[in-house]
Specification:
Strand content: 5-15%
Structural class: alpha/beta
Strand order of the largest sheet: 3-4-5-6-7-8-9-10
Oligomer: single chain
Distance between the termini: 10 Å
Helix content: 40-55%
Number of strands: 10
Order of helices and strands: EEEHEHEHEHHEHEHEHEHHHHHHH
Radius of gyration: 21 Å
Shape: globular
Number of helices: 15
Largest sheet: 8 strands, parallel, barrel
């Protein structure tokens, strides 16, 4: 049968899987933005599989398909967080390529009234080279100036170079203070945990004590409150996010980057809630959009129901090594017909096992996130066949 697949178990045995007959439907008002939360989807890039270049060092982007996907996200009411780690920033996507991505995306956003913010970092600095705080400041300034010149909002990403050269909290305070003083409009700060990028271990000047690191970050925010729209934290620790959320100045938003606990963090509690800036919203965009519209209507039952089944999928996609999550995000786009191939910059499509991808397929089906089950089954079978799992029975 077309919708029956032969999938692998972790013990190397095979089993038959039948796709669900009844897919979920998502009620998404066309062209309507969210009222109670701001929700960014950190969007992936689509590689050009026909480019005759080295995919490891010079992977090319399929610009038409990449931009088309951003329009898909905007059509669902989601905002786009551009040139972030989901787009393989610093993991295959260079600053030069990121500049073109940002420029193109900002123009596309303006053409449809879509909201966009773009990542700023220091990745033009040569990896492994000796750098100073002055080098870090100059690199941040260059990228901030570029994004603002394009008319975009800044997401001030964590810097590997700063993590490598900073001697303590005072160096972070110096660099962030200078950069925030120079920007024209409020930015979104980004605290990315080392589970996403091991090179960021010890950020804010404290290697093991996250509470002490949080204190440093909060001081920087309070000292520069008028230049901070909000902060996205990606620590995969629900309690740390809630604690920091309650300590933020009233004018500063918390954007959850917690791909494990996002439903409860966005829903919030009596003392507040988080907005969203999530990589998983790329993979679950229809469910995320429908859930946020339900939240706007005060329908928490529907909100919970829609997001509940996405959590196992998200935790699977973001399982250790967490930085390989991008493979699962792109695989979802391939299964759902948003791109015609499963290739990635830097060959990152090989970063997850066939068993991982098979489990992802089952979880996506269970969550009702396969837009066209027959197409998804056909594409899954091709990937399985390439892994040596015969689909003829």
């Amino acid at each position: 049968m077309a919708n029956t697949l032969i999938l692998p178990n972790k013990d190397r045995t095979l089993y038959n899987y039948q796709l669900k007959k009844n897919q979920l439907s998502f009620d998404i008002p066309k062209g309507k933005s969210f009222e109670k939360r701001t929700a960014f989807s950190a969007a992936h890039v689509v590689s050009d599989p026909l480019a005759d270049t080295d995919p490891l060092s010079n992977g090319q982007i399929d610009w038409d398909t990449t931009m088309k996907y951003r329009h898909h996200l905007w059509s669902l009411g989601l905002s786009v967080a551009e040139a972030m780690d989901t787009a393989q920033r610093g993991m295959g996507l260079s600053w030069d390529r990121a500049k073109e991505l940002i420029s193109r995306s900002v123009k596309e956003a303006k053409s449809v009234g879509g909201k966009i913010a773009s990542g700023v970092g220091t990745d033009q600095l040569v990896p492994g080279a000796h750098v100073t705080l002055e080098d870090v400041e100059a690199a941040y300034d260059e990228q901030c100036s570029f994004v603002e010149s394009e008319g975009g909002q800044i997401i001030l990403m964590a810097s590997r170079a700063l993590a490598a050269c900073a001697k303590g909290p005072e160096d972070y305070q110096r660099v962030y203070g200078k950069i925030l003083n120079n920007v024209s409009e409020p930015v979104i700060l980004h605290w990315l945990g080392d589970m996403f990028d091991p090179a960021l271990k010890g950020y804010w000047g404290h290697e093991e004590d996250l509470d002490a690191a949080m204190d440093v970050c909060l001081k920087i925010i309070r000292d520069n409150e008028d230049k901070v729209d909000g902060i996205k934290i990606s620590l995969l620790d629900e309690n740390k996010e809630i604690k920091m959320r309650r300590l933020l100045p009233d004018s500063v938003r918390m954007y959850t980057g917690d791909d494990f606990n996002y439903p409860t963090l966005i829903k919030g509690d009596a003392q507040g809630y988080s907005h969203a800036l999530l990589g998983i919203f790329d993979a679950i965009s229809p469910a995320a959009s429908a859930a946020l519209h339900a939240l706007d209507q005060g329908d928490l039952v529907t909100y919970d129901r829609l997001l509940e089944k996405t959590v196992p999928l998200s935790r699977h996609i973001f399982q250790r090594p967490t930085f390989s999550y991008k493979t699962g995000v792109v695989f979802m786009a391939y299964l759902n017909g948003h791109q015609d191939h499963f290739r990635m910059i830097g060959g990152a499509e090989g970063s997850r096992s066939i068993t991982h991808l098979a489990d992802l397929f089952v979880m996506a089906d269970d969550a009702g996130l396969l837009a066209d089950p027959e197409l998804a089954a056909k594409r899954m079978k091709l990937v399985l066949e390439l892994a040596g799992i015969n689909q003829e029975g």
